[in-house]
Amino acid sequence: MLFAIEEINNSTDLLPGISLGYEMYDSCGSIARGVRVALSLANGNAVASATSQAPCIRLSNVQAIMGETSSSPCMAIATVIGPFHIPMISHFATCACLSDKTRYPSFLRTIPSDYYQSRALAQLVKHFGWTWVGAIRTNDDYGNNGMATFIEAARRLGICLEYSVSFFRTYPPDKIQKIIDTIKTSTSKVIVAFLNHMDMDVLLHELTHNNLTGYQWVGSESWIFDSQIAAMDRHHILDGAIGLSIPKAHISGIREFMLDVKPLNSSSNEMFTEFWEALFSCKFRQSQPSSGHLRQCTGHENLTGVQNSFTDMSLMPIINNVYKGVYAVAHTLHSILNCKETCNNTVPLDPYKVS
Question: Quick one: pLDDT at residue 256?
Answer without folding.
Answer: 86
